[in-house]
Amino acid sequence: MFFTVNEAVFVVTLVCMLSGIVMGSLAFQAGLGVKRWTMIGLILGPVGYPLFNTHKRFAMRRAAGRGASTIQL
Known about the structure:
By secondary structure, this protein is mainly alpha-helical. It has three helices and no strands.
């Protein structure tokens, strides 16, 4: 199962576009910058997802304050 160069470029572009849409949606749900995370998803693809999770966790910790406890449902 080998791809030609054109097929490989198409698949990588499709994955990056899908990743941008998903990360934009997740950023909207988390209350983060939608344009920023959509562009990161478009450029980095799925590699940007761990960056997004880390940023979301730090933003939540910053909003809650030091020493606060949160309950996630």
